[in-house]
Amino acid sequence: VTTRLVADAVVTCDDAMTVHEPGVVDIVDDAISWVGTSEAAPALADSAAVRNIGGLLLPGLVNTHAHTPMTLMRGAGDDLPLLRWLTEVMWPREGLMTPDDARWGMTLGSAEMLLAGVTTSCEMYLFEEALIEAVAQSGARLVMTPGVLSILHAESFGAGRSRMDTIAEVHEAHHDPDGRITVGVAPHSAYDLGIDHCAELAELARDLDTVLHLHLAETRHEADELEAAHGGVRTVQLLADAGVFDGRVLAAHGIWFDESDLKTLGECQVAVAHCPVSNLKLGSGIAPVAAMQALGMTVGLGTDGPASNDTLDLWEEVKLAPMLVRVAAHDPTAMSAAQALQMATRVGAAALGLPDVGHLSPGAKADIVRLDLDHLAFSPVTNPSELLAHVVWAGCSRNVTDVWVAGRQVVADSRCETVDVGEARAQVQERALRLARESRT
Ligand SMILES: [Zn+2]
Hints:
By secondary structure, the protein is an alpha/beta fold. The chain has 17 helices and 20 strands. The protein has a seven-stranded mixed β-sheet, with helices on one face. Strands 8, 9, 10, 11 and 12 form a five-stranded parallel β-sheet that branches. Strands 5-4-1-6 form a four-stranded mixed β-sheet, with no helix packed on it. Helix 1 (about 80-95) packs across helix 17 and helix 2 (about 100-115) packs across helix 17 (about 420-440). The longest helix has 20 residues, at about 420-440.
C-alpha cells in the first residue's frame, strides 16, 4: 500500500539539494517510491492513503557518534576537570550499570532523539543486546558498535578473543542492512587499547564487512604516551601503518590532526564524526572540518554521550558546525546552510555505511521528519534558499511534529508513539539515583 505525504515543502537533501514546493513523498513499505512536486506526482491506486500534512519534510537526522545510555549520568559531576569527571563520577557509575539500566537509558535517549527528528544513531557502548532491544521497541534506526575497552577486555585478544567472538555473534544475530539495525566494531581508542589491538579489531570489522568506529584525536595530549613508546610517530600514522584504515572507518571527534595526519586520513578515506557541542563543552578544541572536507573526507555530525553535551538534540550541532567553520576562517561563506544540513543527513549516513539513508529519493529508506512551518522563526520566506536557511539557523527540535522511520510513524503530533516516555523517565530517574548512591558507598 502506498502512503502519499503532501507537504508545503520537501527538502530532499539529495546531491543537488533539491527542494519541492509544494512537494510529495510516496512511501511503499519501508522505502520511498517517488518524490517530487505535487504537480508532477503520478496517479495513485484507489487503495493509496493520501495525507495532506502541510509543513516541511526532510530526511531524519543522523547522529554519527553517541553513547546514549549515558542519559543515566546526564549532568553528573558537571564542571569537574576531565580526568576527575571520568574517574570520580562517570566510570564508577558506569561500572555499576546492569543491562536493564542500559536498556532504559537507551529507551529514554531513543525517544528523545525521535522527538527531535533524529532517526538514526551510531552507538559505541557495552550492553549491545540491551541497546538493540531498546531500539527494536522504539522503532529508531541503529548502528550498534559494541565497545572494546582495555580495562574490561585486555585479555580478550589473540588466543583469548572472547570479546571479539561476542561481537561476531552479535553481528551474526542482528546485522541487517535491509532492516533498521546494523552492527559494527568499536575499539575505544588507540591510546586506550594500543595499536596492535586496534589492528585486530579492524581486521574483525573487515572480515564482517562492517564499520570500525573509534575515538581519535579528541584531546591534545591523550596519545603522548603511546606516541613516545613508538619513537614519536603520530597515532594516525601508526594506525595507518598497522592497516587499521584499510576498511570502512569512522573516527569520532578528530580535533588534533596536523597536516600529515589529514593527508593520511584523506588518502585512506577515513570518515569523521564531528561533535562540536561535546568538543566545546569539554574544552577539547575545534576540529579542522573545512580542511577535512577540502580533502574529500566524509564528515558527519554527532552529539557524543549525553553526559558531555548534555542533549541528544542534533539540531544544536547543525547550527554550531557551520558557525565554527565560519568563525575559524573569519568567513561567512566558509560553510553553507545546505552543507550543514547534508552533514546531518546524507553525508552522516554515508559515514555509517548507509547509502540509502539520509535523503528523500526513490529507493531510499522512508526516514522522514516533518517540521511545523507556522513557527514564528520561519517567517518570512521570500525565496526557497531562505527556507533552507531557516531550517539550519532557526530550525530546532521544537519544530518537529511528526517522524517516520522505515515508513512507520513513530512520532505523531509531537508525541512518541512507540515509547511510554513517562515510564522511561521514571525508570531512568530511579536507576540514576541508585547508581549515584551506590557509587559513593
Ligand atoms: Zn565518544
